[in-house]
Automatic annotation (TrEMBL):
Component of the periplasmic nitrate reductase NapAB complex composed of NapA and NapB. It comes from the Bacteria. This is Periplasmic nitrate reductase, electron transfer subunit. The keyword Signal applies. The keyword Iron applies. Gene3D superfamilies: Flavocytochrome C3, Chain A. Keywords: Electron transport, Heme, Iron, Metal-binding, Periplasm, Signal, Transport. Electron transfer subunit of the periplasmic nitrate reductase complex NapAB. Receives electrons from the membrane-anchored tetraheme c-type NapC protein and transfers these to NapA subunit, thus allowing electron flow between membrane and periplasm. Essential for periplasmic nitrate reduction with nitrate as the terminal electron acceptor. Its main location: periplasm. Belongs to the NapB family. It is found in: Periplasm. InterPro entries: Multihaem_cyt_sf, NapB.
Length: 156
């Protein structure tokens, strides 16, 4: 109990020092409100542009679900309808030239092959996402394992 009170007092003292120094909390601390007071509401950020070029992207790991290379705004994916399957179902790929959904989508949880897409794989957006033309939030120095292996085997 004594430790909790002393920690609380230390926090109060630190806030007091900040305020006494003439700095306001909104100027010194970065918050989710970006310096707005509690009675103000920030404007919503603009919606990013969805990449829409129908090019398949390289996957970063073996079981990565492929990303969606086109816009899906307005696509209905509900219990009763799935717009994605109008192009990606087995019988539509000849006409649409879209890749067929993976054979794994036709298996139930016991790996029994079904005639249609399994209900557990029916809601595409659980795994597949569109790509947006945005600046990354954090730097990424990811290196694919195959590239790492190739570089380590190369003569030095």
């Amino acid at each position: 109990m004594i430790m909790r009170i002393s920690s609380f007092c230390a926090v109060i003292a630190a806030v007091g020092v900040l305020l006494a120094g003439g700095a306001s909390l909104s100027e010194e601390l970065i918050t989710l409100r970006n310096g707005l007071s509690i009675d103000q509401e920030a404007a919503a950020p603009p919606l990013p542009k969805v990449e829409n070029h129908d090019k398949r992207r390289v996957r970063n790991f073996a079981e990565q679900p492929p990303t969606i290379p086109h816009t899906i705004r307005g696509y209905e994916v509900t219990r009763n309808a799935n717009k994605c399957l109008s192009c990606h179902s087995r019988i539509q790929t000849g006409e649409s030239q879209a890749p067929m959904v993976s054979v794994t989508h036709f298996m139930d949880r016991d790996n029994q092959v079904l005639a249609t897409v399994s209900p557990r794989r029916y809601f595409c957006n659980q795994c597949h996402v569109v790509q947006e033309d945005v600046k990354p939030l954090v730097n990424n120095d990811f290196v694919d394992v195959e590239l790492m292996l190739r570089n380590s085997e190369a003569p030095q």
